[in-house]
Write a structure and sequence with these properties.
The chain is of the alpha/beta class and 226 residues long. Helix content is 35%, strand content 11%. It is globular and about 50 Å long.
């Protein structure tokens, strides 16, 4: 994972270049290579691992939505938390996100299209805290070292930017709160939108309207969620 192979946008590479030379990142590369050697399918494909960074550069971020790890089914993961490519069935958690979006903003939402690139292009940084996963094995790469890297990413956003909305859904995302200065940013948190937990506080949390209200209060253009 040298600089020349990942080719991050300049705004990110300026802050992350040294991170790719650290021992943990070299170990992470070895672990991924071992998976491939053992013919274990890894999601997303290599060219999409850093997709969130390419679609939402550091200086364009308005909102951060933290996920856990990529979807582990064929064709689902494309490097953006909660998002799936066009023509892929919308996963249950994202269906619930769309339900809350409809209820929150009183708008119609096309639940059949789970591609959130239009969010990313407006400044919504869709970051998973673990950036890879083995096929059909959720959280299989949680100990690979990605958490160190993505903690660094959150720290960079916290220090380099102001007035960012951090949307933290679920206990895993909540654990990152200590990386974020509440005096500089807005934190919105609730339970995870998974069908297992959404009825315990995700539904009715109104993250989308709260995000836009905050952005507009800071004279920042709101997000068009549909």
């Amino acid at each position: 994972m040298q600089k020349r192979s990942i080719q991050l946008p300049a705004s990110w590479l300026h802050h992350l270049e040294k991170e790719f030379q650290k021992p943990y990142m070299k170990d992470l590369k070895i672990k991924l290579q071992e998976c491939k050697k053992n013919k274990i399918t890894i999601y997303p494909e290599g060219s999409k691992i850093f997709n969130a960074f390419h679609l939402t550069e550091l200086d364009k971020i308005k909102v951060v939505i933290l996920g856990q790890d990529p979807y582990h089914g064929p064709g689902q993961a494309h490097g953006l938390s909660f998002s799936v490519p066009h023509n892929i069935k919308t996963p249950p958690s994202l269906v619930n996100i769309f339900k809350e979006l409809k209820d929150d903003l009183k708008i119609e939402v096309d639940r059949s299209n789970g591609n959130l690139e239009h969010w990313a292009n407006q400044g919504v940084f869709l970051l998973n805290t673990t950036l890879t996963v083995s096929k059909n094995e959720p959280m299989s790469h949680k100990n690979f070292g990605w958490n160190i890297f993505t903690d660094k990413v959150i720290e960079i956003i916290n220090h380099q930017r102001e007035n960012i909305v951090f949307i933290l859904w679920g206990a895993h995302a909540h654990s990152k709160i200590n990386l974020i200065e509440t005096s500089k940013h807005l934190i919105l948190q609730s339970v995870h939108p998974s069908p297992l937990s959404a009825h315990r506080g995700f539904f009715g949390s109104k993250p989308f309207s709260q995000t836009n209200d905050y952005l507009e209060s800071k004279e920042i253009d709101k997000i068009y969620w549909i």
